């Protein structure tokens, strides 16, 4: 009768995922730099659509540490 709501705190999954989250945080910093540069280039570019994929990829990189840690905590059972 274990429910997913019963197991919201999973310290083992968090501790195992912490090194991977730190590595993805470095990639997140790269994503911030790419996002800033692409946003500036979108302001310069007359069409504005040519770099939309780059900006959405940069936003995905920025959100990566949160996705990594939640994936690890979901993989470890209570």
User: Mind describing the biggest β-sheet?
Assistant: none
Question: Would you tell me the overall average pLDDT?
Answer: 81
Helical run tally: 2
Amino- and carboxy-terminal Cα gap: 13 Å
Helix content: over 70%
**Would you report the number of β strands?**
0
Structural class: mainly alpha
Beta-strand residue fraction: under 5%
Rounded Rg: 17 Å
* Net shape: elongated
In quaternary terms, these chains amount to: single chain
Low-confidence stretches: none
Give the ordered list of helices and strands. HH
Provide a short characterization of the protein structure.
By secondary structure, this protein is an all-alpha fold.
What's the SSE blueprint?
Layout: H1 11-44, H2 52-75
Helix pairs in contact: 1-2
Describe this structure in words.
The chain crosses the membrane at residues 12-33, 39-62. Keywords: Membrane, Transmembrane, Transmembrane helix. With 78 residues, the protein is mainly alpha-helical. The protein has a domain at 27-78. Helix content is 74%, strand content 0%. The chain is built from 2 helices and no strands. It has helices at residues 11-44, 52-75. The radius of gyration is 17 Å and the shape is elongated.
Descriptive terms for the model:
78 residues, mainly alpha, 0% strand, TAXIMIN_1/2, transmembrane helix, transmembrane
